[in-house]
Design brief:
Elements: E1 5-10, H1 15-25, E2 32-38, H2 45-51, E3 56-58, H3 67-80, E4 85-88, H4 97-102, E5 107-111, H5 123-130, E6 134-141, E7 151-158, H6 165-195
Parallel strand pairs: 1-2, 1-4, 2-3, 4-5
Antiparallel strand pairs: 5-6, 6-7
Helix pairs in contact: 1-6
The structure holds 5-O-phosphono-beta-D-ribofuranosylamine.
The site of 5-O-phosphono-beta-D-ribofuranosylamine has 14 residues, from helix 1, strand 5 and helix 6.
Length: 196
């Protein structure tokens, strides 16, 4: 049987993309990244993809008159790859209902907070401002609410009183890189069990 097909959608640095690539190379995640799609031409993650022999596409949302128009092309590009899962990895836009419906229960995201706390932008800063003693990251299914779909996995980190936003973000990022590949593998397993 061939490996499950992943399309990874990014906007920037791509460190989670790289963690997924490494997990696949290590045989920990049995899957294949069939394409990486970025909405930003300058996303560093595009280089990581091509360096690792993965096809990379840019679909620049800023060139479209509306998010809906952009997403028509995004849906077409993803569908072409016939993915089993769509993996959002630092994709900095909210997905519209058409995309969510086109890949129902097949889109995963990672967010650097213990959801349902601190949705939206700068969750690490929000955590520091709230004075919590624990922060972390969450992998969840994407629905059409902001950071709101069913939670699949979480990892926690301690927050220290002297933490800067950058220090906390880095501590969480280490956990993101461990959590995301595992959560993808578990979810793929769940899908296989459902099908059989
Ligand atoms: C990560 O913190 C991720 O949780 C959030 O955006 C950041 C992306 O980082 N959604 P990278 O592009 O994977 O390095």
């Amino acid at each position: 049987m061939s490996n499950p097909r992943l399309v990874v959608v990014i906007s920037g640095r791509g460190s989670n993309l790289l963690a997924i690539i490494h997990a696949i190379q290590a045989g920990v995640l049995k899957a294949e990244i069939v394409a990486v799609i970025s909405n930003k031409a300058e996303a560093k993650g595009l280089e990581l993809a091509t360096k690792n022999g993965i096809k990379a596409h840019v679909i620049q949302d800023k060139n479209y008159p509306s998010r809906a128009a952009y997403e028509v092309d995004l849906i077409t590009a993803i569908k072409k790859e016939a993915p089993d899962l769509v993996i959002l990895a630092g994709y900095m836009k909210i997905l519209g209902p058409e995309v969510v419906a086109a890949f129902k229960d097949r889109i995963l995201n990672i967010h650097p907070s213990l959801l349902p706390d601190f949705k939206g932008l700068h969750p690490q800063r929000q955590a520091l401002e709230a004075g919590v003693s624990e922060a972390g990251c969450t992998v969840h299914l994407v629905d059409d609410t902001l950071d709101g779909g069913p939670i699949l996995a979480q990892a926690k980190v301690e927050v220290f009183s002297e933490d800067t936003e950058q220090e906390l973000s880095e501590r969480i990022l280490i956990q993101e890189h461990r959590l995301y590949p595992k959560a993808i593998a578990n979810y793929l397993q769940k899908l296989t069990e459902k099908e059989n």
